[in-house]
Amino acid sequence: MQNQKKVIFLMLFLILCLLTSIRDVISELFFNSTVHAFSPETIVMIYCLCATILGLLIARIKNKLPSKQVVKDIYFWKLLIGLNLSSFLAYYFFFKAIEGPLSSGIISFIDYSTIPFFTAISASIFLKEKITKNFTS
Hints:
Radius of gyration: 18 Å
Oligomer: single chain
Largest sheet: none
């Protein structure tokens, strides 16, 4: 049973890596295309919009949409705006970095290599998680 969970997790992680690499290649095509020369800001907005719509569709399919009481709560809107703003800024700076002299592969490597570090820092700041030497509680 434990091995089955590990295999499922590994498969999900590989799917994430595949989708991320496809996203990066498509982004490069948009930037280098003479026909469809989108600005980084336009692509960021398209990604954020697609992610929000996809998230709402998944929530709708799973019957996990927030209740009317939750939607009326100001914390819900702060969280929603914060998530979208952080997504927008992450993509914005990622695409600005791609415009620089480094290749998108190097930028992606740096980006994805630092995500665990910044996730731990963010969790300690926002969720008051305690960071330990081996990242366990």
